[in-house]
Amino acid sequence: MRALPLPVTGTEAAVARLGSLAPLRADEAAALMKAASTPLKFATGREIIAEGQSLAEPRILLEGWGCRLRIFSDGRRQILGFVLPGDLIGFARSRDAISSTAIGTLTNVLLCRAPEPEQAGEGLALAYAHSLAAEKSYLYRHAARLGRMSAYERMVDFFLEMEERLASAGLATAGTFPLPITQEVLADTLGLTSVHVNRTLQTLRREGLIEWHGGIARLRDPEQLRQRVEYRPVLAHSR
Amino acid sequence: MRALPLPVTGTEAAVARLGSLAPLRADEAAALMKAASTPLKFATGREIIAEGQSLAEPRILLEGWGCRLRIFSDGRRQILGFVLPGDLIGFARSRDAISSTAIGTLTNVLLCRAPEPEQAGEGLALAYAHSLAAEKSYLYRHAARLGRMSAYERMVDFFLEMEERLASAGLATAGTFPLPITQEVLADTLGLTSVHVNRTLQTLRREGLIEWHGGIARLRDPEQLRQRVEYRPVLAHSR
DNA sequence: CGACAAGTTGATGTTACTCAAAAGTGGTGG
DNA sequence: CCACCACTTTTGAGTAACATCAACTTGTCG
Fold first, then answer.
1. Is the C-beta atom of B151 closer than 7 angstroms to strand D?
2. Residue B92 and residue A68: Cβ atoms within 8 Å?
3. What averages of pLDDT result for each successive group of 10 residues across chain B (239 residues)?
4. Contact assignment for B100 to A147 by CB distance below 8 Å
5. Largest CB tally within 10 Å, which of B4, B16, B55, B114?
6. Closest in B139, B148, B234 to A78, CB measured
7. Strands B66-71 and B40-42: what pairing?
8. What is the pTM of this model?
9. How far is B73 from B80, CA to CA, in rounded Å?
10. Residue A236: its chain B contacts at CB < 8 A?
11. How far apart, in whole angstroms, are the C-alpha atoms of residue A230 and residue A225?
């Protein structure tokens, strides 16, 4: 059993995160809770959606960590983004849409059907829209990180982004948050090798900027970290 | 005056591209042409939208090349995607949206207001949705390219993507298409230096795979190029 | 034709990768 | 409770890919 920074469990984080994107009425929160009462389970390391698979129905991740990824035939992998509690999967404007990336699990994961945007109410529809917009912003940030940042900067930027996103779900306090992934997964996220991730991490630890043990990460000096990579929060304005 | 592969000028490419994403009724095409009759002009190297600027109204790029980009305070730049004829700018699901990247021009550019999705008709609304979905797919591809491909592979993958996208607007034939950018811009796109882009380009030329002179690029052996980078077209199914 | 931007080349430096092995960690069954 | 196993993290040594710096050449446009 992990010692989480906040005693947020189950679907609370997902609801908190959507609620932080747009105010939800009581009936909207209730609709979420009802959908969450019949969750789908996926074990660690499973594929939720394959690349090219048609998107059956919109879903919300309730618990655990997923990721979007692309796999090359020679074994190279690139993780394109993380799917955290409250994040959406399988949303598309057109009905015949196809997933442009695979989606897999990094931990055990609980999903549920997302209440249909059309019937969900204004608050939920807005929360969905904001969530998808934020996802796109993080994707732009990810591309900029991969293209123009050093390994050191990529790591710092990544930790800051995780802190920001998990905080919006109530899963981070005082710069401390769960980070239940291996260094190899982080390497596949940041376009590095796990050996180099390890060495860069040691630098950050030596400098007293970041701790990360047993699946729990801690930013010792968030402000200094932000300055180092010109970090501007995506969610600043909507909080 | 450039010798374009096809005599497509003005707004025709933009309409062709949207029409390839979803069939347009005559009145929808007419609405596009009408909007295009009062275009906005931007000169080369200008900023169309600043990062963080609120999105006033949806627009369509009619002619020329734009790009989304992020600029770092020390001068580093990362181009996050190209905006080509028929591509959309400033679309957002929520009204108070903000641009998460800057958008600038790489050539002289003509824009027009996009007929409002709600009133535009089903065909246009579907074309918009498909266009935004394709943009996202290309962004995922871009991230994977930056994270896990060698300089050589990034170049090949990039040329293939440009050919695919321009072909959907009728701006590429037989692997030949306009590429009105400098090697430095390409470097900022692929996360490389212009020196290294130049050297890699020479390899590709020596191998007889790619030509690129005077703003016109030509793929000599598209099939071989596709195999080298496992290129799967984004638009294959919707054509 | 002249000026400035873009492309090209060479020499050298650095970041990050590769390969290989050792040490640590956590979970499982006997 | 311990032994074992697989996985993860850490360390070292050598290498490759790409960056940097600087100059020179070519192309373009007024």
1. yes
2. no
3. 49 94 93 93 96 92 97 97 97 86 96 88 93 97 98 98 97 96 98 98 97 95 96 76
4. no
5. B114
6. B148
7. unpaired
8. 0.94
9. 17
10. none
11. 9
